[in-house]
Amino acid sequence: MSLTDIRDYLRQEQSASLKQIANHFKADSSLVESMLDHWILKGRVAAKQHDAFGSACCGKCGGMRHKRYEWIN
């Protein structure tokens, strides 16, 4: 997995959670998160927090906040 792999994945998906990205690449979440920080610093990815139990929540998280990463075109 490289920085460009993450870029290409987010460009295709437009938005994904850290878990989705880590599962896609079968990589450790902390490694993926550090690589996402590179794109955030470049202004190409935005990390957005969503409240649990909001309209996009499945209710299985037990009240944790969700962070999604979105590619900025």
UniProtKB/TrEMBL annotation:
Domain named Transcriptional regulator HTH-type FeoC is located at: 2-70
Q: Which Pfam families match?
A: FeoC
Task: Quote the Gene3D superfamilies the UniProt record gives.
Answer: Winged helix-like DNA-binding domain superfamily/Winged helix DNA-binding domain
Q: Which InterPro entries match?
A: Tscrpt_reg_HTH_FeoC (IPR015102), WH-like_DNA-bd_sf (IPR036388), WH_DNA-bd_sf (IPR036390)
Please give the name of this protein.
Transcriptional regulator HTH-type FeoC domain-containing protein
Organism annotation: Chlorobaculum parvum (strain DSM 263 / NCIMB 8327)
